[in-house]
């Protein structure tokens, strides 16, 4: 019986690294936006929650039938609607002699008992996470756990929403009851757990965001968001035959916009950072030097290569020369970037020349609704 449960658990652990990798990008975006930084303890809990949910889903779904054209249930029934029917199953299958207490331990080895215990234990961590991490009340925990159990049962009875011709597991009202009970047991247990672990709502109380360094990971996310927004604009300008679309788009987005928004672009706003200069207000000269070097010198030659290739003009010597120049510039910049990654005191050349850097922005204080006019 235990082997039946170990099979999906092993698959959950094997696929967890891939799921964790896919989870990392939205996780970082939410943490930077909501909290201003990534707390290691909060990250550990969320990745544990992801691992738990993967185990729960795999335990419900696996093993799958060998073919999507599976056979209908042998009983001809798709659901079990009698509450506490598991008691009848236990009494019917048990080898316990109720007049001999020494045989009671046999219950721990019997299928019907283990199935009930599994259904209860399946959602105990869910209830614990809801109360400890997500700070939900008992009613919300009850409804969410019941909703999760209902999701499990509907997934099974529909053959994973029509993927399989017939359900390969039945809808069982006892499963929904025991799952919901497990969630509430976890909710109660989380009260004891909370007194022995750091409070989630107090993790950020003594954090000084002004003293925290802006990581290259965070800057990289801002870079991806900025260029995800900017590339369609450059493409649209090119289609409309606007002269030098790259120069116009970069100047407007990375110089004019940050000058107006005091160092922020869309990407930087999203991850709560901004470019700061030597004074209280970011200067236009500082922006021109910073982004002139980055997107004029480094980015410009790459943009020139893309535009040159798109037009298909020029001879082979010109193309080869440009390719060598692009390779040289990118190689030098790549080495410089790696050196800065491994030496925190070292600044990127365009930051050193412009006297600029990044700082974390404070989250705007919530207005008191009573005083809001």
UniProtKB/TrEMBL annotation:
It is a multi-pass membrane protein. Keywords: Membrane, Transmembrane, Transmembrane helix. Its main location: membrane. Residues 49-191 form the VanZ-like domain. Coiled coil: none annotated. The chain crosses the membrane at residues 12-32, 44-64, 112-134, 141-164, 176-193, 221-240, 246-267, 288-310, 316-342. GO terms for cellular component: membrane. It is found in: Membrane. It comes from the Bacteria. Residues 221-349 form the RDD domain. The keyword Membrane applies. It holds the Pfam family VanZ. This is Teicoplanin resistance protein VanZ. It comes from Paenibacillus lycopersici.
């Amino acid at each position: 019986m235990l082997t039946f449960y170990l099979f999906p658990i092993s698959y959950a652990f094997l696929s967890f690294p891939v799921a964790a990798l896919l989870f990392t990008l939205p996780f970082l975006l939410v943490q930077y936006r909501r909290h201003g930084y990534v707390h290691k303890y909060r990250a550990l809990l969320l990745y544990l929650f992801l691992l738990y949910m993967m185990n729960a889903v795999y335990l419900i779904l696996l093993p799958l039938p060998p073919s999507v054209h599976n056979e209908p249930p042998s009983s001809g029934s798709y659901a079990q609607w009698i509450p506490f029917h598991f008691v009848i199953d236990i009494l019917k299958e048990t080898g316990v002699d109720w007049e001999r207490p020494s045989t009671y331990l046999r219950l721990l080895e019997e299928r019907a008992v283990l199935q009930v215990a599994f259904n209860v234990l399946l959602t105990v961590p869910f209830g614990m996470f809801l109360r400890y991490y997500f700070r939900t009340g008992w009613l919300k925990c009850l409804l969410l756990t019941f909703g999760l159990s209902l999701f499990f049962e509907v997934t099974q009875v529909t053959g994973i929403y029509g993927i399989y011709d017939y359900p390969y597991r039945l809808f069982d009202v006892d499963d929904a009851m025991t799952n919901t009970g497990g969630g509430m047991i976890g909710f109660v247990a989380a009260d004891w757990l909370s007194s022995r672990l750091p409070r989630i709502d107090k993790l950020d109380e003594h954090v000084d965001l002004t003293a925290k360094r802006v990581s290259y990971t965070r800057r990289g996310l801002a870079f991806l968001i900025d260029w995800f927004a900017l590339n369609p604009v450059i493409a649209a300008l090119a289609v409309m035959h606007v002269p030098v679309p790259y120069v116009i788009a970069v100047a407007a987005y990375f110089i004019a916009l940050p000058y107006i928004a005091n160092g922020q672009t869309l990407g930087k706003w999203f991850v709560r950072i901004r470019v700061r200069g030597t004074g209280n207000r970011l200067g236009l000269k500082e922006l021109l030097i910073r982004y002139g070097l980055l997107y004029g010198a480094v980015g410009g030659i790459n943009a020139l290569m893309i535009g040159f290739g798109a037009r298909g003009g020029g001879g082979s010597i010109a193309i080869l020369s440009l390719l060598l120049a692009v390779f040289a510039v990118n190689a030098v910049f790549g080495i410089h970037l790696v050196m800065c990654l491994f030496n925190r005191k070292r600044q990127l050349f365009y930051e050193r020349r412009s006297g600029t850097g990044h700082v974390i922005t404070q989250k705007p204080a919530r207005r008191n609704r009573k005083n809001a006019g």
